[in-house]
Amino acid sequence: MTFQQVYGYEPTVRYSAPGRVNLIGEHTDYNDGYVLPFAIDRRTVASIAQRDDRTIRVASAFEPDAVHELSLDELSPEHMDGWSAYVFGIAWALGEQAGADLSDKTGFDVFIDSDVPVGAGLSSSAAIECGVALAFTDLWELGLDRKALARVGQYSENHAVGAPTGIMDQSASLLGEQDAVVFLDCRTLDTAVVDLALEANGLEVLVIDTRVEHAHATGGYKARRDSCERGAAAMGVEALRDVGVEDLPRAQELLDDETFRRVRHIVTEDQRVLDTVRTLREQGPRVIGDLLVASHASMRDDFEISVPELDLAVETAMANGAVGARMTGGGFGGAAIALVDREARDAITTAVTAAFASAGYREPAVFTVHAAQGARRD
């Protein structure tokens, strides 16, 4: 399906935004910590035309028979459900969070298409949010910068969609640059672009999508966030960002074992992000492998968000020559990443696929991604 097939006329503009891979820094974002994602060369495209009334209509290539419709006068989370909330929620959050006056604005016809895998932990949701946010902001002439749009996207996902995520995904999708990672301080929203230099070093990032689907709005994600908040309260700090590695012995005395392990993951993961940034700047990408592996072990053992398929992907990639590997994204399924030599890519792909078959798991989808430009008008 296309915009023209759904609405009967051609769109006037197209905006696109990428998914993201998080190189390192998992679940640190909502703890005011540090993250190191990059935008990927898989994008969501929003084809749009302005209307002369106050209606927003939304359709997509992945739900071709449905057109969702909502008036700007009825924008509120209780009127939104399903995937269309990612679009309607942005319009609502531009008014609710960013303070935009929508009283004189007209609506849009929107058609969404994407090659960002859904459910793989590559933030297909933020790709929708950020492309739409940039489009609505431009077309309504709201004058918001990209950091403000990242906050709009997070607010929409938290309050319209109902997923308690941090701001990392939207920041990566809006601020990404080619062959670089975005170093984000989630407390101040200060960002720095750090060269990845994979091309120059003959390296690639291999994504191993286990095809075990996860859903952030339910289940374990919220439980982990609650544990982090309890840990911060017990330590007497605003957020776990304020706890250092040197504070962990005191944390172990104060906290029950499970909460302590949740806290230890966040505190050590923040340090690993800082160490990875320093290593990339001083020594380059070939030296970050141990940090990636340590991050996976922490997510597996302390935060307990891995699954057997993710563990097998990481172990098999490392056994077959990867520089480093770890699960990426919120966990409970989704994808792992492996930093690999370009010439070893095919052998590692074959080994991982064979290991999944031997274990009786569903065949994984394995593909390379490259760090790419953030959201843009196409």
Report what the structure shows.
This protein has 378 residues and is of the alpha+beta class. It contains 11 helices and 12 strands. Strands 1, 2, 3, 4, 5, 6, 7 and 12 form an 8-stranded mixed beta sheet that branches. It is globular and about 60 Å long.
Number-wise, the strands total 12
Low-confidence stretches are none
- Mean pLDDT, to the nearest integer, reads 95
> What Rg do the Cα atoms give?
21 Å
Largest sheet: 8 strands, mixed
Shape field: globular
What level of helicity do the residues show? 25-40%
Q: Give the N-terminus to C-terminus distance in angstroms.
A: 19 Å
Question: What order do the helices and strands follow?
Answer: HEEEEHEHHHEEEHHHHHEEHEE
Secondary-structure blueprint of this entry?
Blueprint: H1 3-7, E1 13-24, E2 34-50, E3 55-60, E4 63-71, H2 85-96, E5 108-114, H3 124-139, H4 146-161, H5 168-175, E6 180-185, E7 191-195, E8 203-209, H6 220-235, H7 248-254, H8 257-282, H9 289-301, H10 308-319, E9 324-328, E10 335-341, H11 345-359, E11 365-369, E12 376-377
Helix pairs in contact: 2-3, 2-4, 3-4, 3-5, 4-5, 6-8, 7-8, 8-9, 10-11
